[in-house]
Amino acid sequence: MRIAIDAMGGDHAPRAQVESAKAAAAEWPDTHLILVGDPEAIKPFLDADAPANITVVSALEVIGSDDEPVKAVRRKPDSSMVVAGRLVKEGKADAMISAGNTGALMATGLLVVGRLKGIERPALAPMFPTLDQVGILALDMGANMDAKPEHLLQYAILGSLYRHKVHGIQNPRVGLLNVGTEAAKGNELTKAAYELLEQAPINFVGNVESRDVLNGPCDVVVCDGFSGNIMLKSIEGAASVVFKVLREQMTSSFPAKIAAAILKPKLRKVKKLFDYNEYNGAPLLGVNGLVVKAHGSSDANAMKMAIRQTRTAIGNGLLSAIAEEIRGK
């Protein structure tokens, strides 16, 4: 399998991308990793004895975090992100991963890779950690700010297929994000979507409130991109504040430092449980190729996790399963 990596996208590029590629190439020799970016920027981090299953494809432009997504994709055809997308489009790579500009990656998926026939709105689907350590796939998390009930139905089918093919969950539970668990709750969008999801060939378990998401009430939670993005950032912000307060309190006095030393192993487990690195790699589901968004602040370990998830998706035939399911509708 061949995976193109946008070597210039992300806060720690290209070091994190190159180091993750070296580690992944050594662990999975059946995977050909293509580092896309400026060869001169990549070279200092790529040893002369790097694994043979790593190659570099030149791309001398970079899409920055402040670039307007659609304009950047159209005006920077030699950017690392667009070139990686073109490799997927032309069948020279089975998937691409980028930690760069999220909007630009979505534009690359739509304008360069292209939508799957039958899909109206591709969805960005990151994983959230849950207390049972199974995780929950959430979509859409911001690819589309507005949605119709039919879009939420497609998201549910896409998410269910992903959890089955990539994570091996049989008959994944699908929930609808709402302000209450009762079927009659919500706005016009969620009420109409509820009726469609009840009739869909999925394991629909009803409405889910955002306060319950991290408890793992379902395997897939579906929502429009506006609500989903607010939920995503709220959870990220809350987690950041909690860990900051814990850190401050654990170092506030000598007794607190002693207590922190005793609790350190347990605190590490808590941090690992909610560490995005363990769930890194959000697919853009619904495009005609596997496009994966890594967290912008991904280090080498987080990027390797994204590569691992991408390998699993390719190996289990995710794209063909989605295409077959959509054709059957």
TrEMBL record:
Main location: cytoplasm
Cellular compartment(s): Cytoplasm
Keywords: Acyltransferase, Cytoplasm, Lipid biosynthesis, Lipid metabolism, Phospholipid biosynthesis, Phospholipid metabolism, Transferase
One Gene Ontology molecular-function label: phosphate:acyl-[acyl carrier protein] acyltransferase activity
Pathway: Lipid metabolism; phospholipid metabolism
SUPFAM superfamilies: Isocitrate/Isopropylmalate dehydrogenase-like
Gene3D superfamilies for this protein: Isopropylmalate Dehydrogenase
Domain of life per record: Bacteria
Entry similarity comment: Belongs to the PlsX family.
Assembly notes: Homodimer. Probably interacts with PlsY.
UniProt name for this protein: Phosphate acyltransferase
Species assigned in the record: Cohnella suwonensis
